[in-house]
Amino acid sequence: MNSKIKVFVTGGAGYIGSHVVKMLGERGYSVLTYDNLSFGHREAVLYGKLIVADLSDRQTLKQTIKEYKPDAVMHFAASIVVPESVKEPVKYYRNNFCNTLNLVEACLEHGVKNFIFSSAAAVYGIPEKCPVNEDAPINPINPYGHSKAMVERMLHEVAQTSDFRYVSLRYFNVAGADGSDRLGQRRKDATHLITVAVKTALGKRPYLEIYGTDYPTEDSTCIRDYIHVDDLADAHILVLDYLLQGGKSDIFNCGYGHGYSVREVVEATKKVTGVDFKVIETGRRDGDPPELVAESTKLKNSLGWQPRYDDLHYIIKTAYEWERKLL
């Protein structure tokens, strides 16, 4: 049955997108990846065909969707570095909002009714309480978060005026790598803490920087909810099936419901790798909230999501083994 279902995946050569493409392929879906390879990698697309093109190329985008006739779109392509978004807001609004608008227009023009959007916990800004649920106020504090919130608003309004339906998945901190060592984080300039930590443990970086040690948390460093990339990929498949079965538009948090501080992640990485690497404490980065932890019971209760890898040491271990493979 799944082989007849066509899924169009933007950014499918990137970190999260490639894991989802792999899972789609393993479960028998037909997949077409659309990626400009600015950060993605051709060899990361393990199933289906890859179209190398940009979402700003409206003609190629519309023609591709017209010819492929997907049953659903999964949209991963985006700029994702929060500090960079503070310094280069125009880049983030153009890539994250304008290019998504191009994609939605193409879907509407060619009758694609099911849309899955990669959003982010950044839409919450500094939440009033944690864990934060989907009904919490949207109050982003950086252009990255604003660009994601703008897309969510657009999707909501489009769905109000057509038979277009969407699910927005608000990611918390995605980490780890495919357990079979076939996929992982490949960005050389990756800023995610666990990736940076394992790179430092392997000697790829001279030291790890802790950005800010004056936050109102127990050990004065930021707290984040880390979710393994394979559990996140599984959530996408559940959401896809939900929409294809006629589910209504909705929003779900993707996290484990508990967090770890920067210091706790650093110490866990040292324990997993057996390397006591150098750590330097420095000032805060722009746009970092003190704590972001998901209330994710909605995804579990509504769609039966059952995370399998809620273990910080396992997350770090898979990231480390992948990074070691790249040596």
**Unreliable stretches, pLDDT < 50, 5 or more residues?**
none
Largest sheet: 7 strands, parallel
Instruction: Work out the count of structural domains.
Output: 2
Radius of gyration: 19 Å
Kindly state the number of beta strands: 14
Order of helices and strands: EHEEHEHHEHEEHEEEHEEHEEHH
Q: In CATH, what is the class of the largest domain?
A: Alpha Beta
Q: Compute the separation of the termini in Å.
A: 40 Å
**Quick one: CATH superfamily of the largest domain?**
NAD(P)-binding Rossmann-like Domain
- What structural class is derived from the secondary structure elements? alpha/beta
Pfam families: Epimerase
Family: Belongs to the NAD(P)-dependent epimerase/dehydratase family.
Protein name: UDP-glucose 4-epimerase
InterPro entries: Epimerase_deHydtase, NAD(P)-bd_dom_sf, UDP_G4E
Concise synopsis of the structure shown:
It is built from ten helices and 14 strands.
Report on this structure.
The chain is of the alpha/beta class and 327 residues long. The chain folds into two domains: 2-175 and 226-254, NAD(P)-binding Rossmann-like Domain (Rossmann fold, 3-Layer(aba) Sandwich), CATH 3.40.50.720; 193-224 and 257-325, UDP-galactose 4-epimerase, domain 1 (Alpha-Beta Complex), CATH 3.90.25.10. It contains ten helices and 14 strands. It has helices at 15-26, 58-68, 82-87, 89-109, 143-160, 193-201, 229-244, 262-273, 297-303, 312-325; strands at 6-10, 30-35, 49-52, 72-75, 114-120, 165-171, 173-175, 208-211, 223-224, 226-228, 250-254, 260-261, 279-282, 291-292. The strands form four sheets. It has a seven-stranded parallel sheet with strand order 3-2-1-4-5-6-11, sandwiched between helices. The chain has a three-stranded mixed sheet with strand order 12-9-14. The protein has a two-stranded parallel ribbon with strand order 7-10. Helix 6 (193-201) packs parallel to helix 8. It is globular and about 55 Å long. The termini are far apart.
